[in-house]
# Entry
Amino acid sequence: MTTVIRRAAEWSKVAAWIRREDVVGLVPTMGALHEGHGALFDEARRHCSVVVASIFVNPIQFDQASDYDIYPRVLADDVAFCTARGIDYVFAPPNDEMYPEPQRVFVEIGELSEHLCGRTRPGHFRGVGTVVLKLFHLLQPHLAFFGEKDYQQLAIVRRIVRELNVPLRVVGVPTIRESDGLAMSSRNRRLSAAERLLAPRLYQALQTARQLIARGERNVVAIKGRAVQALRTTPEIRLEYFEMIDPESIQPVDLVNAPVRVAIAAWIGKTRLIDNLLCEPPALAHVFAKRQTKTVGPVSSWM
Ligand code: PAF
# Structure
């Protein structure tokens, strides 16, 4: 059974029972759980003796009040999902537990949040960084698990942990996809049946980029032009960005001469979807494969 905790003080009582040898893993979520979260839970379960999922729809990361209002809140279903996945604790605080007074101190993210999703969602990553740091302080996990689907978020959280000396390890977990390639997301449930049929085109664009890069194309303009061709002829899809970025600094690259993350954001109707894919140029394929076998331990934290 999963124990639901609403207040930080309740967690402190639980924490007092945690043994020195226990490894506490945290999976921060906003609920509306799906198989993508399931993969994070499974990874956490593999590495941790105590697993906590936080469920909190964080008001300070929404740039549009309407988006916050319609965000699905289905706690009973989420707790059942957590129980089925063997999660020990759900931390589901009310707003006044996380923000007992108006928040005046924030994590300033800087250039990591100035492009990609940060460009069109002002204050979003500041809100994410702030709530994640608060959760880390409240729950004090040893490991924290984040999905690679939100790649900019993952990179920013890694940087917060590194630069603000937070004593935990961030684990990135690969994206889980539907059988047609669509990355799993709580937002997918907002798509109409017709929009849902179009949604895998984002992943197809990423795959086109991956193929071109694997064949040796290095010019980002040429790669982007070819990859987004099909999207440009689909009026229902409005492309927001299609970028090739350095996996660590997440800054856009001019030339693909090392592994890159290709990242996309697009609107289908009223729903904004994001996705990304690791792409590697041919000369590096063997080096890359070696690096993966060598450095990915049971808990992989490299990007
Ligand atoms: O990815 C999410 O669901 C949220 O941004 C997070 C990390 C739980 C912070 O509110």
Remarks:
- The chain has two domains: 3-176, 186-288.
- DSSP finds 13 helices and nine strands in the chain.
- Residues 28-30, 58, 61, 128, 131-132, 150, 153 surround pantoate (CB under 6 Å).
- The beta strands are 3-5, 24-29, 50-55, 89-91, 143-147, 169-173, 237-245, 260-268, 271-279.
